[in-house]
Design a protein that fits this description.
elongated, mainly alpha, 9 helices
């Protein structure tokens, strides 16, 4: 492989994480996967820890930050909720890659405190965004918290199913919130 980009390292890291588990995330295995030397790794990353953070940031950007930014552009709370569910959860949940990475990161978090902390931060960010939407819709704190939990638990639960619901099924499941 001639020129390995940072994105390629990240994608290779996700592939190893999903298919071989967190213990497979080594510089040696990544280099073997990309057919490059360790020097190529150090061109992009100062350390394995820096790669780990790049993986977590990429996941956060793709699965959370971009969705929140997309939904936040909508003018009403109902439109933001619909965008978060339809354009966010439904599109991500119908993608097996997202589900696989989400599950692999949760497994990694069980054995790595920095990953656990990062995953918790992302979960809180997602939950807080949903909570704020429900509050803007006029719910009291308790009701907004409960509805946020329902939506978020539903999305997380679906991501762990052994079958992949179709987009039509996902839209029907979330239809209460449209």
């Amino acid at each position: 492989m001639s020129q390995v980009t940072k994105e390629m390292w990240i994608m290779a890291g996700f592939d190893l994480l999903v298919h071989q588990g967190p213990n497979s995330l080594t510089i040696q295995r990544l280099c073997e996967k990309l057919n490059v030397t360790k020097g190529a790794f150090y061109h992009w990353f100062k350390s394995k820890s820096e790669l780990d953070m790049a993986l977590l940031e990429a996941w956060s950007d793709h699965s959370t930050n971009s969705l929140i930014q997309l939904a936040a552009r909508k003018s009403t709370p109902s439109e933001r909720l619909q965008a978060m569910i339809h354009e966010g959860f439904v599109q991500l949940l119908e993608t097996s890659t997202f589900n696989d990475v989400e599950i692999a990161l949760e497994a990694w978090a069980l054995s790595e405190p920095k990953v656990q902390k990062f995953v918790l931060k992302i979960r809180c960010t997602r939950f807080d965004f949903l909570f704020d939407i429900f509050k803007e819709m006029g719910m009291d704190k308790k009701s907004a918290s409960q509805e946020s939990m329902k939506v978020y638990c539903l999305a997380l639960g679906i991501s762990h199913l052994p079958i992949r619901p179709s987009k039509t099924d996902l839209l029907e499941i979330f239809s209460k919130y449209f």
